[in-house]
Amino acid sequence: MTVRARRHVAEDVVCFDLADPTGAALPPWTPGAHVDVTVRPGTVRQYSLCGDPADRHHWRIAVLREAAGRGGSVHLHDRVGVSALLPVGQPRNAFPLVAAPRYLLVAGGIGVTPLLPMIDELAARGAEWRLLYGGRHRAAMAFADDLARHGDRVVLHPQDTHGLLPLGPVLDGLRASGEHEETAVYCCGPEGLLGAIEGHCAQWPASALHVERFHPAEPAHRDTDGAFELRLARSGRVLRVGPGQSVLEVLEAAGAAVTSSCRDGTCGTCETPVVEGGVDHRDTVLTPAERDGGRTMMVCVSRGLGGRLVLDI
């Protein structure tokens, strides 16, 4: 795709508008979706689509410059300008907007991006919603001026002047009133925020909380990881996954066709059906109910529990 426009939308945040170089219509997407962007050869990053799903000719992403990161965001900020070409994958949505009587949206920093199209859809529906949006300081909070049009539905909470987001009073208040039974909570931001909101919502209905993480919540490998047998149901092949190896690495070495992207359990690209065997889930995509069901796994990070794991490959 080609970069049609770029602009600074906050301190250290650049927004890129992407389009097909030929002007062709782009694939549809829904609020909460993200895409893989090949920032440079060998470097793929996932970014939430934060524009208008009805606009079939432009996709919008916003990128926070992370000087201490792995270099992808710095490259986009410093080296990618208007008219540059970027390989971009198809939209995928592991953070879909569900139907609910009311919504509480919680954003930390650049985590506001997947919530923006959700807000537009909820506003168009006339749904009951509000947004708690925190950041280091006001100048670092992307799209804050755009969100002002929603009035008091949006609560901006810069940390330098207001402290941390008031999760306790808000969430505990919803529970005390009984409204938590009908409220869908969507949260995206740094791990500290996600851990805090998961703690506050621990006694809520399991389906109420929806989170999207930037980074994996669990280590890909542990000292206690043991070897296990991996059987491919379609071909009958039997492989061995050793300590320190991922299922994905073993599959790739054996020539099995598995699509993958992030390799840290956050994007959902490598989700694979499980035929038999227990799974040690280490991704941040599947819900608790989906993990308990054991029907699929993210082969980039999750492992087999017990001696044998059978996949539908």
Short description:
About 20% of the residues lie in helices and about 30% in strands. With about 325 residues, it is of the alpha/beta class.
Name a few traits of the molecule.
313 residues, alpha/beta, Elongation Factor Tu (Ef-tu), domain 3, Rossmann fold, Ubiquitin-like (UB roll), 5-stranded parallel beta sheet, 5-stranded mixed beta sheet, 15 strands, 19% helix, globular
Please explain how this structure is put together.
The protein has 313 residues and is α/β, with parallel strands linked by helices. 19% of the residues lie in helices and 31% in strands. It has three domains: 2-92, Translation factors (Elongation Factor Tu (Ef-tu), domain 3), CATH 2.40.30; 102-212, Rossmann fold, CATH 3.40.50; 228-311, Beta-grasp domain (Ubiquitin-like (UB roll), Roll), CATH 3.10.20. A five-stranded parallel sheet has the order 8-7-6-9-10, sandwiched between helices. It has a five-stranded mixed sheet with strand order 12-11-15-13-14. The chain is globular. The mean pLDDT is 93.
